[in-house]
Amino acid sequence: MSLSGSRRRSRRRHTKRAVIGLTICAGIVALIFTSYMVGGSFAEREVARLQREITQFKDRLGALDEQSVKFQIDSREATLQQQHWKQLYERDVPTGPAKDLHARIQARIVEGIYPARLALAIDGVVNEPACDEKPVTKRFIVRTPALPSGNDSVGFADNAITVTAEGKSASDGSGNARAIFDAAQPVHVSFLRLGGGKVDITGVLPIQQSVMTETAEYRFNLVVSDTKGFVNVTADRCRAPG
Q1: Which structural domain, as residue segments, surrounds residue 136?
Q2: Residue 147 DSSP one-character state
Q3: Same domain membership, residue 137 and residue 233
Q4: Of 189, 190, 197, nearest to 214 (Cα)?
Q5: pTM higher than 0.70 for the full model?
Q6: 135 and 235 share a domain?
Q7: What is the C-alpha separation between 232 and 221, in angstroms, rounded?
Q8: Parallel, antiparallel, or unpaired for β 169-171 and 177-181?
Q9: Are residues 27 and 69 in the same domain?
Q10: Mean confidence (pLDDT) of the chain
Q11: What is the mean pLDDT of residues 29-50?
């Protein structure tokens, strides 16, 4: 009886240990399974989040590409516009001799000359107009501070054009001013047209200047005369433009 009771107690201990072992194993399995499920769910959420970010990045990249293309198009259009305006400026804004001619035309219009008459004159201009080839030469005294008047003008084209000149006084060896002008210094020449209008030019002789009247163009050439204090002026009558 004593041996039988000892065996039953031994079986009960083994059974209890087995139950505890199985319980522990079941708990471990349950823990592993739970961890797996939780980890899988987290991984799925993380993958979904990353996919959303990738989609957003793709959308932003597409928008940036569109902006880049738009900027390139705008830059190209701006360059074309700049070239267009540059061409218009170079075409419409005169430079060089044309700039000076444009300024003179504007000045004449301000003076009251009709643009149609200016256009007519320009259309009729040629490099070598038909001239009389019968030049007329006259001489006159150049006015100076020491000689303000006296035989100091000449007329051409039936006195339609009057020519006068002013210069600086020459000096003697002592530095005293003389009545005659200093031919080495610039002189101021005026061409007065009958009925109004004046052409002024300043320079060292010889001087060439063209003056228009209602019917002709007069080409003047001024040089120092052999007679001290005088200027020789030669005029040649040419066909008027138009």
Answers
A1: 129-239
A2: B
A3: yes
A4: 197
A5: no
A6: yes
A7: 8
A8: antiparallel
A9: yes
A10: 84
A11: 76
Residue 206: DSSP 8-state: S
How many Cα atoms occupy the beta-carbon half-sphere of 200 within 13 Å? 5
The answer to whether residues 181 and 142 touch, using CB atoms and an 8 Å cutoff, is: yes
Residues 40 and 137 both lie in one domain: no
Beta strands in 5-135 (DSSP E): none
| CA angle, residues 235, 212, 130, in degrees to nearest 5 | 65
8 Å CB contact between 230 and 170: no
- Both tokens of 135, joined, read 């030049």
pLDDT above 90 coverage of the chain, percent: 32
Bridge partners (DSSP) of residue 140 are 231
For the purposes of burial, counting CB atoms within 10 Å of the CB of 211, is it exposed (0-12), middle (13-18) or buried (19 or more)? buried
pLDDT digits (tens, 9 = 90+) for 178-190: 989 999 999 999 9
Assess whether 108 and 140 both reside in one domain: no
Same domain, 116 and 27: no
